[in-house]
Amino acid sequence: MLRSELASLRQSGKSIGLVPTMGALHEGHASLVKRSVKENDITVVSIFLNPTQFNDQNDLKRYPRTLDADCALLESCKASIVFAPSVEEVYPEPDTRQFSYPPTDSVMEGAHRPGHFNGVCQIVSKLFSYVEPDRAYFGEKDFQQIAVIRRMVEDLGLKLQIVPCPVVREASGLAMSSRNTLLTPEQREVASKIYATLAESKDYAKGHSVKETREMVIQQINATDGLEVEYYSIVDGLTLQDVEEWSDSDDVVGCITVYCGDKPIRLIDHIRYKG
């Protein structure tokens, strides 16, 4: 049904934008949808909590589900089509496809969440097949995910544009995330220390080495009650490989994952040092 409807729209010359989401939408998602609406005739927003990209089943169970509120937000953003399939529709049988794009998918999130990016590629490739968009919009908060998806698009020879969109932040600086709804007000305040430290490290980096800057960020965040760094990597923005010196690359990005709270919520963020 979705394919046939989009096929007729495409035949009439309409451009199609896709915003893939897992639901629990917020203003960060809204910014992607609004950009797609501005740049395309038709905007499709998918809402699908993809089980194959969760290596922690407790994380999947806890992930917020707010379909009615999501649809209301998308209506206000003037999305054309909301596609919210069931797991059975997307995976009538197990998806055994394997996607591998080292070294892009084997560091950082790839190292700490085995199978995660394979699951991401499974669902995103399916969505691209269903919608056949001209453009697909992704938030830069998931910095590594965009790099992996670009590799997949190239590998599969798909004819679409990947459009990265800037991180949207709360007033405190905390990167907007669906997982933020799981934080208590106190934890939300504590979590704002993540971006505050990253921002501070940009000035610190001007007079210190990559190693010293990395250590400063980890130590400062870990010294905050309720926060624990899983990893902080300072990498080339294209290859995602660690840089040893600031001069190693013209595009240097710091990528971080931090656990917040007693029943820890996993939060990710990044900051650009160069580029």
Write the layout of secondary structure elements.
Elements: H1 2-11, E1 16-21, H2 27-39, E2 42-47, H3 57-62, H4 67-76, E3 81-83, H5 87-90, H6 109-112, H7 116-131, E4 135-139, H8 143-156, E5 161-165, H9 185-205, H10 210-222, E6 227-236, E7 252-260, E8 265-274
Helix pairs in contact: 7-8, 9-10
Structure report:
The model has no long low-confidence stretch (mean pLDDT 97). The chain has two domains: 2-165, HUPs (Rossmann fold), CATH 3.40.50; 178-274, Pantoate--beta-alanine Ligase, Chain: A,domain 2, CATH 3.30.1300. The strands form two sheets. A five-stranded parallel sheet has the order 3-2-1-4-5, with helices on both faces. It is α/β, with parallel strands linked by helices. Helix 7 (116-131) packs across helix 8 and helix 9 (185-205) packs antiparallel against helix 10 (210-222). The termini are far apart. It is globular, with a radius of gyration of 19 Å. It has helices at 2-11, 27-39, 57-62, 67-76, 87-90, 109-112, 116-131, 143-156, 185-205, 210-222; strands spanning 16-21, 42-47, 81-83, 135-139, 161-165, 227-236, 252-260, 265-274.
List the defining traits of the structure above.
275 residues, alpha/beta, Rossmann fold, Pantoate--beta-alanine Ligase, Chain: A,domain 2, 2 domains, five-stranded parallel sheet, three-stranded antiparallel sheet, 10 helices, 8 strands, globular
Short description:
With 275 residues, the protein is of the alpha/beta class.
Would you identify the regions where 5 or more consecutive residues have pLDDT less than 50?
A: none
Count of extended strands: 8
Q: What do we call the CATH homologous superfamily of the largest domain? A: HUPs
What is the percentage of strand-forming residues?
15-25%
Fraction in helix: 40-55%
Distance between the termini: 43 Å
CATH topology-level name of the largest domain = Rossmann fold
As for the number of domains, it is 2
Integer-rounded radius of gyration? 19 Å
